[in-house]
Amino acid sequence: MRVVTEETLTLIADLDFLADVYQGLDSAPKTLPCKYFYDEQGSWLFEKITQLKEYYLTHVELDILDHHIEEIASQLGPNAIIIEPGCGAGHKVQKILHAIEQPKAFIPFEISGEMLNHSVNRLSGLFPHLDIQPLEGDFTNEEVVKQIVSETNLENSSNVVFFPGSTIGNFSRPEAADILRNFKRLSGSNGKILLGIDLIKDRDVLIRAYDDADGVTAEFNKNILTRINTELDGNFDVQNGFKHKAIFNEDNSCIEMHLVSCKPQSVTIAGRSFDFESMETIHTESSYKYSIESISSITDEAGLALEKYWCDNKNRFALCLLSV
Ligand code: AVJ
């Protein structure tokens, strides 16, 4: 085995990424963390996914928002501070900011400074009088959130934490409860959380959403290998070496995305090699699906009350209103 040389390491900008990739590929079964999907190309591919007809999640959630916006806005009340952890393109929060009376501030809360800039620029163009206060940090980290809450005095106001898109689905149930506890801290006194969850449904509908006919999701999944090649001096055969696969794990109510090795092969990453058997998989993402019952048991665990929820007429997706 070749050892990783000093020279190789100085070429690698993100050593956390390298450590996570080594750890994931040393595990059995092999895994890679889904947060690494989202470089520039990956974020663009995700935007493309949200426009696919098979990927019902985005358009159904937008429809629910449009349909019930007045009731949602009245539940959230006037003068709220809106906090959005992991802000995306901002199309959803835009609807909330339009509908509520006199939002006091908008706080996009993101780990990537680049994404934050993007979101601040877009929304300040749309809402020139809105006070926008970006926060850079990891909303999954309890210590980070505690520090922010005390430094920014958020604990003394009533805030709305907006977490749409079924992003909560990327976390296991215990992790999801921890994240909701963090959101409870952020929401302050008398605060609210508006949470988007994807509902358990027919297997075929779920699989199609994660394995679309145009192969956009396959490209999105494989992009993590391209990233490893360019950023970590890897040599994955992205085109022909691996195939995208989506399965529905019914026991866990969870969609799993995998990359399946098409042949026995060895791949080198920053000087270390990893062997793959034919058909061996890398588990790249879990996307948990909920029922109203299963989400309310998690909100209970986090000390939050599920006050109300809004669904589409086919019960595909739900927006849940939680209160402290
Ligand atoms: C951004 C986590 C909500 O799980 O549906 C889309 C990511 N993965 N297609 C999801 C994703 C494949 C998405 N989330």
TrEMBL record:
An MF annotation (GO) of this entry: methyltransferase activity
Report the Pfam families cross-referenced here.
Methyltransf_33 (PF10017)
- Gene Ontology annotations of biological process type: methylation
Q: Which UniProt keywords apply?
A: Methyltransferase, Transferase
Q: Histidine-specific methyltransferase SAM-dependent domain location, by residue?
A: 19-323
- Determine if Nuclease is one of this entry's keywords: no
**Which InterPro entries does its entry note?**
EgtD, EgtD_Methyltrsf_superfamily, MeTrfase_dom, MeTrfase_EgtD-like, SAM-dependent_MTases_sf
Task: List where the protein spans the membrane.
Answer: none
Q: Does the keyword Magnesium apply?
A: no
Specify the protein name.
Answer: Dimethylhistidine N-methyltransferase
